[in-house]
Design a protein that fits this description.
Strand order of the largest sheet: 8-7-6-5-9
Structural class: alpha+beta
CATH superfamily of the largest domain: Hypothetical protein af1432
Protein name: HD-GYP domain-containing protein
Organism: Candidatus Geothrix odensensis
Distance between the termini: 48 Å
Number of helices: 15
CATH class of the largest domain: Mainly Alpha
């Protein structure tokens, strides 16, 4: 008996679905775990763009030779660690995380307010006004240049009733950081950031009872929700001050490399680079955010999911570059050091394996410690492993607030 990963084309009635392996995606299945009873269920998965899933061989039919979940995780961990041997793509932050946290908190609050007002204007039938949005992008950009970890870590804290607005701000910040890492020029960075801020404007044309439903969507509701990407293009096309980059991000962030995305089913290079970047960032933020229907993943687990979904869903080369931009130990990760102390990652260094951390807990003795920053770049300590915060009753984000 084991949990195994199988491709959709290997599924057969009688297998028991343990995990649909699409944690970022709203879908038309009412449950994540169920017994496959018909070929039509498999065809539905394929139609919704699922590539592979996890089955429970203790509750249904087996597939000899399929990799176990443990084997898959081992390969992904090795891939993630291999990314850490590469040089960081962003320079060391000139401002310490703790110093930038106050400004980052203010910028987040103001940005979410502006996005909320813009979205409400769209609901009322008004045109998108980039003149209102661009100052927000510039503020986010300035904060990211001072210390990207401060704003990105605080951006993971989202409220259910304002999730859409907060998600837009987080996607903007992640895209700005990604664009800097790729070496885009200043104006391209601003356009990509604006695209992130406006990427979900089409959701304002989706009925509130579907957009804010506290649970998974039915198949019919999911079809309506998927229309938001095409609606975003309609809202932005022809709007003064809106570039093609912004439009492509809004309309392409749900397209997939294998052609099974929406709204147009584009594949590979048919999807613009900004669109492929936005797909990665949109998934990462969705995975790491707490929602009504799933608890957010730890950043390290989300990075491994990006690696797992590379190729058929996401641009694998860009995923690798995104990981190098974010760090294999993203800010906010809980890690165990070689002396059995637990620490929260607070800043990236040029050496991705040796970030700046904040030591908070003695795992060997079982008690908390006064938070103390430690630069692993000049220390004889090193990171042994990621740790699951829930197992220690810790919330790493508590140690990143100002």
């Amino acid at each position: 008996m084991a949990i195994k990963r199988v491709r959709i084309d290997q599924l057969r009635p009688g297998m028991y679905i343990h995990d649909l392996n699409c944690g970022w995606l709203q879908h038309g299945f009412l449950r994540q775990q169920f017994l496959l009873k018909s070929q039509s269920q498999i065809e539905k998965m394929h139609h919704q763009g699922m590539h592979d899933v996890y089955i429970d061989t203790g509750k249904g039919a087996d597939l000899p030779g399929a990799p176990t979940e443990a084997e898959v995780q081992q390969v992904l961990q090795e891939q993630l660690e291999a990314s850490g041997t590469q040089k960081a793509m962003l320079p060391t932050a000139p401002v310490p995380q703790r110093a930038e946290a106050v400004a980052a908190q203010r910028i987040l609050g103001e940005a979410q307010g502006v996005v909320k007002d813009m979205m409400q204007d769209i609901r009322l039938g008004k045109q998108v006004d980039p003149a209102k949005a661009m100052p927000v992008v510039d503020e986010i950009n300035a904060s990211m240049l001072r210390n990207p970890g401060a704003l990105l870590s605080l951006g993971r804290i989202k409220q259910a009733d304002t999730y859409t607005f907060q998600h837009c701000v987080s996607v903007c910040a992640l895209l700005v950081s990604f664009a800097h890492a790729l070496g885009l020029d200043a104006e391209e960075v601003r356009e990509v950031g604006l695209g992130g801020l406006l990427h979900d404007v089409g959701k304002m044309k989706i009925p509130n009872e579907i957009l804010n439903k506290p649970g998974r969507l039915t198949q019919e509701e999911f079809a309506i929700m998927k229309s938001h990407a095409a609606l975003s293009r309609e809202l932005l096309q022809g709007t003064p001050g809106i570039s093609e980059t912004v439009i492509r991000i809004a309309s392409e962030h749900h397209e997939k490399m294998g052609g099974c995305g929406y709204p147009l089913g584009l594949r590979g290079d048919q999807i613009s680079q900004p669109g492929r970047m936005a797909a990665i960032v949109d998934v990462y933020d969705a995975l790491t955010s707490n929602r009504v229907y799933h608890k957010g993943m730890e950043p390290s687990d989300a990075l491994k999911k990006l690696l797992e979904w590379s190729g058929d869903h996401l641009d694998g080369e860009l995923v690798q570059l995104f990981i190098r931009a974010l760090g294999i130990y993203p800010v906010g990760s809980l890690v165990r050091l070689s002396d059995d102390k637990l620490a929260v990652v607070v800043e990236q260094q040029e050496d991705l394996l040796r970030p700046m951390v904040r030591v908070i807990y003695d795992a060997a003795r079982g008690y908390g410690l006064p938070p103390k920053d430690l630069n692993l770049l000049g220390s004889d300590q090193h990171i042994e492993s990621f740790e699951e915060p829930a197992e220690w009753g810790l919330d790493p984000l508590d140690y990143l607030r100002a």
